[in-house]
Amino acid sequence: MDIIFIEDFRLQANIGIYAREGVMAQTIELSLQIGLSTASAGASDDIRDTIDYAKVVERLRGELESRRFGLLEKLAEFVATLVLEEFQASWIRVSVAKLGMIRGVKKVGVIIERNT
User: What is the mean pLDDT of each run of 10 residues along the chain (116 residues)?
Assistant: First the structure.
């Protein structure tokens, strides 16, 4: 299996269970590792034979900036399901983090792995 990755993708999301988090969107950081075979794309040099990471970013940005999530776990599951189903990946690892939420801590988050 080959891996396409998108790292340190930052966007604004409405997420959180605490009252202070409901007031405005927060910056979150996503990193994705998307598993699939890239052999066809390597042979053809054609974007149609692989996953277009620009389309993944565009799709996720549109969805995540317009939705509300309570937990990072829910957001991570949403991302994993979307990429697996819409982009026909066979496996995904999603890392999602909130930045600067706890004093003295750079980021907090969750990492999940899912497959089809």
Answer: 96 89 87 96 95 97 94 97 97 95 92 96
pTM of the model: 0.93
How many Å from the N-terminal Cα to the C-terminal Cα in the chain?
13
CB atoms within 10 A of CB 4: 20
User: CA 4 from chain center: how many Å?
Assistant: 12
Place of tokens 């042979």: 43
95 close to 114: Cβ distance less than 8 angstroms: no
Contact by Cβ (8 Å): 29, 94 = no
Q: Which tokens in the block code for residue 41?
A: 């794309």
Q: At which residue do the structure tokens 């995904």 appear?
A: 92
Q: Which residues are tagged catalytic?
A: 98
Distances (CA, A) of 32 to 8, 17, 97, 102: 9, 24, 12, 24
Q: Which of 67, 66, 53, 65 is nearest to 11 (CA)?
A: 65
d(CA 9, CA 31) in angstroms, rounded, equals 6
